[in-house]
Specification:
Helix content: under 10%
Largest sheet: 7 strands, mixed
Shape: globular
Structural class: mainly beta
Oligomer: single chain
Mean pLDDT: 95
Order of helices and strands: EEEEEEEEEEE
Number of strands: 11
Radius of gyration: 13 Å
Number of helices: 0
C-alpha cells in the first residue's frame, strides 16, 4: 500500500520561505512521477511542481518557477518542496501525489495522494 504524508506547512509573512516534506512509503518513488499540487477553497487542484522520468526531470508551474524547488531524498524516501519569496496568493493546502500520469500537470492522472498541509502567507 502506498502512503504519502505531508508536513512542514504553516503561517509565514510574505517574502519568507517554507519547506514542505512528503514521506513516501510502499513505493520506490524513483520509478514514478512525484508531484506537488495545491488547492484553495472552491478552487480546482492546481499543479505546482513534479519530478518525473528516469532522468528525474523537473517541471514547474509558471506561477512558481524560480521561487519553488522540488527535490527528493532517496535515502529517506522523502520529497521536498522548498518555497521562497512566498506571496499571498501561495496560500493553499498543498498535496503531494504519485503516479504514472500521461500528463504530469493533470491531477486526475495521479493514483495516490497525501492528506495535505496548509500554507498560509500573510502581509
Amino acid at each position: 500500500q502506498v502512503n504519502l504524508v505531508e508536513s512542514g506547512g504553516g503561517s509565514v509573512q510574505a517574502g519568507e520561505s517554507l519547506r514542505l516534506s512528503c514521506a513516501v512509503s510502499g513505493r520506490t518513488f524513483e520509478d514514478y512521477t512525484m508531484a506537488w499540487f495545491r488547492q484553495g477553497e472552491g478552487n480546482e487542484r492546481e499543479f505546482v511542481a513534479a519530478i518525473y522520468g528516469t532522468g528525474r526531470n523537473l517541471h514547474y508551474a509558471q506561477s512558481v518557477e524560480g521561487r519553488f524547488a522540488i527535490s527528493e531524498d532517496v535515502s529517506t524516501n522523502t520529497i521536498f518542496l522548498q518555497m521562497t519569496s512566498l506571496k499571498l496568493e501561495d496560500t493553499d493546502i498543498y498535496y503531494c501525489a504519485t503516479g504514472t500520469p500521461p500528463n504530469i500537470e493533470h491531477p486526475r492522472h495521479y493514483l495516490y495522494w497525501g492528506q495535505g498541509t496548509q500554507v498560509t502567507v500573510f502581509s
